[in-house]
Amino acid sequence: MITQVRGRLVEKSPTEVVVDCNGVGYLLHISLNTFSSLPSDENVVLYTHLSIREDAHTLFGFINKTEREIFKLLISVSGVGPSIARTMLSSMTSEEIQNAIASENVPLIQSVKGIGIKTAQRVIVDLKDKILKTFNIDEISVRTSNTNRDEALSALEVLGFQRKQSDKIITAVLKENPDASVEKIIKLALKNL
């Protein structure tokens, strides 16, 4: 199994790259996130996954091991093939996928082209525990889709507070006041920042 390719970037497009490794050119299928993270110089290291089917051997390339791990978890779900997994990794970052699965955000997962409601639910059922365990995500810190929360977080960022610190404090505020308005969340968070 080919697990990593290191070499000179010969060709690059948003969906695939060719990496020359000592005279052998490897065609790697990539996500948009990997494409946008590719270094500007010619030398690259991509972590890979070789997908073997009856009619094709396809090599997928990833900018980091986390993205590759998410890809492997996604293709382990019935109904999610390598192309859908790649589309998902192109639509969202690895972190967004982890959070969407951990917070059971069916509409977000379903928003990916090629994923219906049943597949989105299956992704969550099959992967939630694995995501929480593998990436050590604390279930309490998993965000529920709350627009007031997101607006308050954005406002605090604009005011110059760090996102991570603000996020923790907003989570604590919402635990005590789950129905708080944006203004109330910001005021209570500012007292604790």
From TrEMBL:
The keyword ATP-binding applies. Its main location: cytoplasm. Keywords: ATP-binding, Cytoplasm, DNA damage, DNA recombination, DNA repair, DNA-binding, Helicase, Hydrolase, Nucleotide-binding. Coiled coil: none annotated. GO terms for cellular component: cytoplasm; Holliday junction helicase complex; Holliday junction resolvase complex. One of its GO terms (molecular function) is four-way junction helicase activity. It is found in: Cytoplasm. It comes from the Bacteria. It holds the Pfam family RuvA_N. SUPFAM superfamilies: DNA helicase RuvA subunit, C-terminal domain, Nucleic acid-binding proteins, RuvA domain 2-like. Residues 72-91, 107-126 form the Helix-hairpin-helix DNA-binding motif class domain. The keyword Transmembrane does not apply. InterPro entries: DNA_helicase_Holl-junc_RuvA_I (IPR013849), Hlx-hairpin-Hlx_DNA-bd_motif (IPR003583), NA-bd_OB-fold (IPR012340), RuvA (IPR000085), RuvA_2-like (IPR010994), RuvA_C (IPR011114), RuvA_C_sf (IPR036267). One of its GO terms (biological process) is DNA recombination. Homotetramer. Forms an RuvA(8)-RuvB(12)-Holliday junction (HJ) complex. HJ DNA is sandwiched between 2 RuvA tetramers; dsDNA enters through RuvA and exits via RuvB. An RuvB hexamer assembles on each DNA strand where it exits the tetramer. Each RuvB hexamer is contacted by two RuvA subunits (via domain III) on 2 adjacent RuvB subunits; this complex drives branch migration. In the full resolvosome a probable DNA-RuvA(4)-RuvB(12)-RuvC(2) complex forms which resolves the HJ. The RuvA-RuvB-RuvC complex processes Holliday junction (HJ) DNA during genetic recombination and DNA repair, while the RuvA-RuvB complex plays an important role in the rescue of blocked DNA replication forks via replication fork reversal (RFR). RuvA specifically binds to HJ cruciform DNA, conferring on it an open structure. The RuvB hexamer acts as an ATP-dependent pump, pulling dsDNA into and through the RuvAB complex. HJ branch migration allows RuvC to scan DNA until it finds its consensus sequence, where it cleaves and resolves the cruciform DNA. Belongs to the RuvA family. Has three domains with a flexible linker between the domains II and III and assumes an 'L' shape. Domain III is highly mobile and contacts RuvB. This is Holliday junction branch migration complex subunit RuvA. It comes from Polaribacter filamentus. The gene is ruvA.
